[in-house]
């Protein structure tokens, strides 16, 4: 008779731990952490399981790309201008707008431009390009939609992007399936990231601060006794993108209103973190003269 019974799988041992009937999400997380400490699961599995639990409690507004940071295409753009945006952003899907960002015409898939370009190359034609012929319907979701429900809808309907609207029907932002999955598998942490979700501004040495891009402009103004305008944008990230005139990449910097902003973390859809320092008026004047 075998003196050593076959070892149970980590799933069986984890199931035994769960028999203690957790009463809420915190209990489940504690059990999972105990399982990780007992080497039943590794740290990566723990992080993903916590992400799954978190997605069930989050809403679209928690992860959406804010309206000011959306990369959009205007319906009257030429094919050349559209291609410039597609190449510069490296996105595969784009909201197409009319008069403003609330006037949503549809979604453009970059791959749908290929037949148009091929036909144009074959015929060497200068005929006007009609963007509406290649647009796809936009999926509209409310800010309050739960992420787990959204992920299920994405999977069932094979959609990858949805336009987010607020309670008044205005466009509030957009969300992609990648944004939802990132909440589960996680993202690469930046060396400047700080953990406290409520901590939007963090001192970083003399006269320097690390600031999250989603920091509301009114909170920025209150912290630094400044008067940056919040008429067009709600967040400091939106204001910075407006100042650049494009979606900046890591290490790009700009000076306005006596503040120097350097992008610390960004991807192809948004700014995440910036470093800010206060500059003297003489330095700001030099920046302006150099740009002219």
Q: State mean pLDDT (0 to 100 scale).
A: 79
Work out the helicity level. 25-40%
Class per helix and strand makeup:
alpha+beta
Cα(first) to Cα(last) distance is 88 Å
Q: How many strands, what sense, and barrel or not for the largest sheet?
A: 5 strands, antiparallel
CATH homologous superfamily of the largest domain - what is it? CBS-domain
- Number of separate domains: 3
> From N to C, what is the helix and strand string?
HHHEEHEEHEHEEHEEHHEEEH
Task: Output the number of helix runs.
Answer: 10
Low-confidence stretches: 1-7, 188-192, 284-292
For the record, the CATH class of the largest domain is Alpha Beta
Named CATH architecture of the largest domain: Roll
The backbone outline, from C-alpha atoms, is globular
The number of strands is: 12
Strand sequence of the main sheet, in spatial order? Answer: 8-9-12-11-10
What fold name goes in the CATH topology slot of the largest domain? CBS-domain
The rounded Rg comes to 24 Å
Q: Which assembly state applies to the chains in this document?
A: single chain
Kindly estimate the percentage of residues that lie in beta strands according to DSSP. Answer: 15-25%
């Amino acid at each position: 008779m075998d003196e050593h019974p076959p070892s149970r799988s980590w799933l069986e041992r984890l199931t035994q731990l769960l028999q203690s009937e957790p009463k809420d999400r915190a209990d489940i997380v504690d059990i999972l952490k105990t399982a990780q400490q007992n080497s039943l699961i590794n740290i990566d599995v723990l992080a993903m399981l916590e992400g799954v639990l978190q997605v069930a409690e989050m809403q679209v507004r928690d992860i959406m790309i804010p309206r000011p940071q959306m990369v959009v295409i205007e319906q009257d753009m030429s094919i050349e201008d559209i291609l410039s945006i597609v190449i510069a952003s490296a996105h595969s899907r784009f909201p197409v707008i009319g008069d403003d960002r609330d006037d949503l015409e549809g979604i453009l898939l970059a791959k749908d431009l290929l037949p148009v370009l091929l036909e144009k190359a074959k015929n060497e034609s200068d005929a006007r390009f009609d963007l509406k012929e290649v647009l796809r319907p936009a999926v509209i979701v409310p800010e309050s939609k739960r992420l787990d429900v959204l992920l299920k809808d994405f999977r069932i309907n094979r959609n990858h992007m949805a336009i987010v609207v607020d309670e008044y029907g205005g466009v509030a932002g957009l969300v992609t399936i990648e944004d939802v999955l990132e909440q589960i598998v996680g993202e690469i942490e930046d060396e400047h990231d700080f953990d406290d979700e409520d901590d939007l501004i963090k001192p970083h040495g003399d006269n320097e601060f690390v600031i999250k891009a989603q920091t509301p402009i009114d909170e920025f103004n209150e912290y630094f006794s400044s008067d940056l305008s919040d008429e067009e944008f709600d967040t400091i990230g939106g204001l910075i993108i407006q100042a650049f005139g494009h979606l900046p990449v890591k290490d790009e910097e700009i000076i306005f209103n006596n503040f120097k902003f350097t992008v610390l973390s960004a991807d192809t859809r948004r700014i995440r973190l910036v470093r800010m320092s206060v500059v003297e008026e003489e330095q700001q004047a030099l920046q302006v003269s150099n740009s002219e």
